[in-house]
Amino acid sequence: MATQTKPNPVTDSIETAAERLSELNEKAVANSRKASAAYLNSYENAVVSLADSYEKAAGASRVEWVSTVVTAQADLTREVTKAYASAAREFVS
């Protein structure tokens, strides 16, 4: 004779709550990834834009060595920022 188990409302509600929490957690992770990507894009664009502005301002200088140094610094800033943002994107993905 096979025994039948009665549905337990407490167990069922715990399982339902666990499923809901799992779904909410997945949504939170997905939203966090989207927010992180948006932050990284904004950060990268802001720093590159700032480096471009410094380079343009230095280009207006009539002192060649100042323009050369600022251009080199702006290039370094852009490259470091792009590398940082790229590494952070890989980490977040």
Structure write-up:
With 93 residues, this protein is mostly helical. It has a domain at 35-93. Helices cover 86% and strands 0% of the residues. The protein is built from two helices and no strands. Helix 1 runs antiparallel to helix 2. It starts with 8 loop residues before the first helix and ends with a helix.
Give a brief outline of the structure.
This protein has 93 residues and is an all-alpha fold.
Notable characteristics:
single chain; 86% helix; mainly alpha; 93 residues
The chain-level structural class is mainly alpha
Q: For this entry, what is the oligomeric state of its chains?
A: single chain
Largest sheet: none
Beta content: under 5%
Average pLDDT level: 90
| First-to-last CA distance | 53 Å
The count of β-strands is: 0
- Unreliable stretches: none
Portion in helices: over 70%
Q: What is the overall shape?
A: rod-shaped
Q: What topology emerges from the helices and strands here?
A:
Elements (H helix, E strand, L loop, with lengths): L8 H51 L4 H29 L1
